Each structure stands twice: as structure tokens, then as C-alpha cells.
């Protein structure tokens, strides 16, 4: 079986594609809020941006990434599980930004505006997203869209 035929590889690539799109949504909403109505509250802007991207991610994950594990009878469980996992992911994603700003003091007037924005970008969208992405992949794969027990039996019998 080639990598393209491996369902885990296909699912992982789709997960990364959805994540990339949602990353762009997060940045657009975050900077839109951060430089307008939530200028004094960058962590709140980032939390809102992640929440918006989570809703987009749910729809795309359910319909595209995990479409082969999209059981109609589990829809409510998947919905609740997805948002619990994503809520934890948002907290994980926002924690490095919070630490950067309010623990390390990397904000104006302590540092320049450019240094502040660089620290915000590295801590939130880069470090936070990377950590949250690993957590979300594991948790979604394990708890929200688990392998069907019957499909596992078929794979074991075929081997």
C-alpha cells in the first residue's frame, strides 16, 4: 500500500490542510480585532480568533478530514467532543501568548512595538499553534473520531 492509499496519511494531510486554512482565519480575525476594537486586549483577540477558527475547523474536519469516521448516530457526541477538545486546544494555543505578554513582560512600553508584535506572533500563532495542533490531532483521532471497532477487526483479519 502506497502512502496515498494509507488512510492515516491521507487523514493527516487533510488535517494539516484544514489547519492551515484555519491558521489563516485565526490570523485574519486576530489582527483585525487586535488593531481595532481589542487593541488593549491581545489575548482576548487571540481567544476570539481561535474560537471563530474552531467553528470553521469543526465543519471542515467533520466533512473533509474525518469523513470516513463521520457516523450519523455519533453526531452529537462528535460535536460535544470536538468543542471540548478544541476548547482545551484554544487554552493551550493562547497560553504561550499570555506567558509572553504578562509573565515575561514582552509588551510596550517595556519593549518596542515591533519586538512586541514579533513576540506575540512567535508565542501565539507559531508556538501555541504547534503545541495545540499536536494535542488536537491526538485527541480528535483518539476520542472524537475514533476508529470504528468493526473496521479495526477487518484490518486485523486481513493481516
From TrEMBL:
GtrA/DPMS transmembrane domain ranges (all copies): 14-145
A Pfam cross-reference name: GtrA_DPMS_TM
Taxonomic source organism: Glutamicibacter uratoxydans (Arthrobacter uratoxydans)
Domain of life the protein comes from: Bacteria
GO CC aspect terms: plasma membrane
Key words of the record: Membrane, Transmembrane, Transmembrane helix
Keyword Transmembrane helix annotated: yes
Subcellular location(s) of the protein: Membrane
GO BP terms: polysaccharide biosynthetic process
Protein name: Sugar translocase
Bilayer-spanning residue ranges: 12-33, 45-65, 77-99, 119-140
InterPro entries the UniProt entry points to: GtrA_CellWall_Glycosyl (IPR051401), GtrA_DPMS_TM (IPR007267)
Membrane topology listed for this record: Multi-pass membrane protein
Xref: PANTHER family: PROPHAGE BACTOPRENOL-LINKED GLUCOSE TRANSLOCASE HOMOLOG (PTHR38459:SF1)
Main localisation: membrane
Family statement: Belongs to the GtrA family.
Amino acid at each position: 500500500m502506497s502512502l496515498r492509499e494509507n488512510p492515516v496519511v491521507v487523514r493527516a494531510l487533510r488535517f494539516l490542510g484544514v489547519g492551515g486554512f484555519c491558521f489563516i482565519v485565526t490570523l485574519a480575525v486576530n489582527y483585525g480585532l487586535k488593531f481595532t476594537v481589542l487593541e488593549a486586549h491581545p489575548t482576548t483577540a487571540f481567544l476570539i480568533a481561535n474560537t471563530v477558527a474552531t467553528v470553521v475547523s469543526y465543519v471542515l474536519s467533520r466533512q473533509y478530514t474525518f469523513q470516513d469516521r463521520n457516523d450519523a448516530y455519533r453526531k452529537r457526541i462528535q460535536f460535544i467532543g470536538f468543542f471540548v477538545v478544541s476548547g482545551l486546544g484554544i487554552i493551550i494555543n493562547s497560553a504561550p501568548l499570555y506567558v509572553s505578554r504578562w509573565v515575561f513582560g514582552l509588551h510596550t512600553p517595556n519593549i518596542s512595538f515591533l519586538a512586541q508584535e514579533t513576540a506575540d506572533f512567535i508565542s501565539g500563532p507559531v508556538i501555541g499553534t504547534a503545541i495545540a495542533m499536536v494535542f488536537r490531532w491526538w485527541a480528535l483521532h483518539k476520542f472524537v473520531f475514533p476508529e470504528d471497532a468493526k473496521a479495526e477487526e477487518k484490518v486485523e483479519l486481513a493481516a
